[in-house]
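Quarterly update from the structural biology core.
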Amino acid sequence: MPKGIIISASSNLYQIETENKIYNCTARGKFKNEGTNVLVGDKVEITISSEEKAEGIIEQILPRYNEIKRPKMANLTCIILVISMKMPSPDLLLLDKELALAKKLNINTIICFNKTDLAKKEEIEKLSKIYKDIGYEVIETNAKNKGEIEKIKPFLENNITAFAGNSGVGKSTLTNSIFEKELTQEGIISSKNKKEKTQLQK
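Predicted structure, tokenized:
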């Protein structure tokens, strides 16, 4: 039975990457009946229902190395915590909570201070130093600067990696820039109420 890893999920349809091919799969009803969530990052066994259409069915979820609720993923080996320097302002309380959770789950953690073009250099250096001094890897990026995006790529190699952070911090812009395609929708922040709005990409 072919084995693979879930790389995306939308409603009840999952993309499974195997050694040779990506399959669009549904999950057996037994998972829902058992109360088992099927998560991105899960390593699974599938049966192939159509090789031509690249379709299959998830039969078994293999044991998980770890599981996190936000974002809902399993088997993470690396997480990049994205903090916006402006719009929205840095949420350091959330960052500290995420760092504690990642440590508990034994996930390698990278802190990414994004939108550095909107903040003073002294402010960025001060925040970076706090976390570097306690042993964390810190990178500083402007998601619209292609050269700075290169700083992230080494942490993606041979890892199952997630980007996490508040709405509007630049997660979608970063991932789209890294892969040079529109993989996710980008959020924009209203200057009046600081709440996220959705901007559809066409």
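The two ends are 38 Å apart (CA to CA).
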